[in-house]
Amino acid sequence: MNLARAIATVGGFTMISRVTGFVRDMLIAAVVGAGPAADAFFVAFQIPNFFRRLTGEGALTVAFVPMFAGLVETKGKQAAVAFAGQVQSVLLMALLALVVAAELAMPGVILVMAPGFADEALRYDLAVELTRITFPYLPLISLVALWGGMLNSLGRFWAMAAAPILLNLILITALATAAGALETPGHVLAWGVAAAGVAQALFVAVACRREDALPPLVRPRLTPQVKKLLILMAPAALGAGVVQVNAFIGILLASLLPAGSVSYLYYADRVVQLPLGVVGVAIGTALLPMLSRQVRAGSTAEAIGTQNRALEIALLLTVPAAVALAVIAEPVITVLFERGAFTEVDGYQTAMTLAAYAAGLPAFVLIKVFQPGFFAREDTATPVKVAAAAVAANLACNAVLLPLYDQVGIALSTVISSWLNAALLAVLLWRRGHLLVDARLATRAPRIVLAASAMGIALWFLASWAAPWLAAGALEKVLSLAGLVIVGLMVYAAACLGSGALRPGDLRLMRRSGG
Prior knowledge:
- The radius of gyration is 22 Å and the shape is globular.
- By secondary structure, it is mainly α.
- The protein has a domain at 36-239.
- The chain has 21 helices and no strands.
- The N and C termini lie close together (9 Å).
């Protein structure tokens, strides 16, 4: 496997996913806005995703991928697929039981996840109803996570990276053609989420079958390998749960704020998810199976080199994205969302939230770069302890910042706790000898920061100069924002080349060296 090529594959499809996701969210903003109905749908959408990251994508992936990749490396693909079949059966049994329990207890689940909704019957009742519709998405997307982890371990990254595009296309189609067909547009979106789960599962299953890697359906049994996986998953599940507690805290606290606060956080987070998904998720997805196989093969120096190049790519792409989103947050939100039911006030509140989130973008990505260094060595416990410290910091920061800045305080608390998380992971990897910063990274990292700063200054002046066009008609706004982005990219590229943060031969070298 080649790190640069794998990141490019995952990042390319993730870019398409994020772009279609923006179209989806622009439609949601125009049709639903940022009021009670939008808040109810976003809670209904995030609750199954919360459990998915807890039981499926989070705990399962970080424990399963190293074991599966190790079996491929030592015993061959068929033995690894047989193991996946055992895991699949146990996973399905557990998740179906969870779905049944959650459907029955959904009023209580909403009270726990969004207690502020209890004071508003409309938001509460709607959230209960919509979450019952979306919750079956959980077992379907968890299967997608299992099968996608297998494909990634086999060096086939495209299918898992492309699957989220189906969700966006289905929701876009549903809103564009049937927004008024049910009681509310939220109902249309909720049923779209359920349908998308089926479509994504079928899509990735076909990709597995083409690779002769679709796990067989077998009777659920706790085999020795499954028991080992569950032992590894226990701290990983706790870790995923701790990480999700940060997201849970955000939803819970935002539900206590005036109507619209949940939506402001959601829309701002969606913008941050573009670089986070294209860079952070792509690097983490490509890095885990690659590091797992290098560690299992005893290639320590190669694994450390892979980690360094992943860090360099992460900084090269996320630092300028963070600076740009902080500087031009308001034009970005205005162009993307401010139309229809999404008002100018909604735009301002969301832009301030986005500017706060932007400060944490490099940290969000660095966490995804550092965690595979532990997971590849089957250490799922250490990231749990680090994440727990981050949650404590998040709570402490919210106690201070929420009363002062409302939902912006929630975003700032997430940023501070995420930087703490990334720093602790880096220090622990370094102390264990798994993170040794080489000369190339040590010299280029500060140059990347300088180049991004130069771009930020240029954007600041350009945005001030373009203010009349950014406040004009829709076409002028779009063209002005596009101009800011293009000029910003040009300034950053020139600054990188001029400072030595990037050299023309770097990509060719990474392709030849595999890292």
